[in-house]
Amino acid sequence: MKGALGFIGVFLSFLSEPTRGVTPEPFACGDATDRCPDICDLCQSLGQPSLDCLSTLNQHLCLANFVGAMGSLQSADRCSWGLVKVSYSNFSLCTEEMSDCLRIPWPNSQVERLFVDVHHEYFRDCPSEELSDPPEAVVFALAMTPICLIPIMVSLVVLKTKNGDGSS
């Protein structure tokens, strides 16, 4: 039985191998946007594998535009979502477009690292609105209300069924 499972595993891995002896291209090109052919041509001219090219594109196109937009804001203004959201959304869309054009799933670990670095660089001093627990009296009232209503509802059901009156 173990031999059969081993054979099936090797057979399935052979079937799932995408290249089957063909030399893989350094990257795959998608058609998510009109810019994809240009992005793929750039990657091909750089001669980099798709992940390396994605890193280069994210650094030199997406991050550079975001850094430029953030450079025009004062430090205090960086914490105002109304002033940052357009630049942040454009940055996010740019990284997604680069990934889609190179047929790399988005988000991926490389993009996540980039966003963590951006947050560390630009938003670490922003005050966070931390959630806190409500006062104990509110928690007690919210917990006790259904507990008290259940016996009342049960007794109403029992009274209705004892009388034999099925109608309301």
Automatic annotation (TrEMBL):
Pfam families: RAMP. It comes from the Eukaryota. Its main location: membrane. InterPro entries: RAMP (IPR006985), RAMP_sf (IPR038126). The chain crosses the membrane at residues 137-159. GO terms for molecular function: coreceptor activity. Residues 1-21 form the signal peptide. It is a single-pass type I membrane protein. It is found in: Cell membrane. One of its GO terms (biological process) is angiogenesis. Keywords: Cell membrane, Disulfide bond, Membrane, Receptor, Signal, Transmembrane, Transmembrane helix, Transport. Coiled coil: none annotated. GO terms for cellular component: cell surface; plasma membrane; receptor complex. Belongs to the RAMP family. This is Receptor activity-modifying protein 2 isoform X2. It comes from Betta splendens. The gene is ramp2.
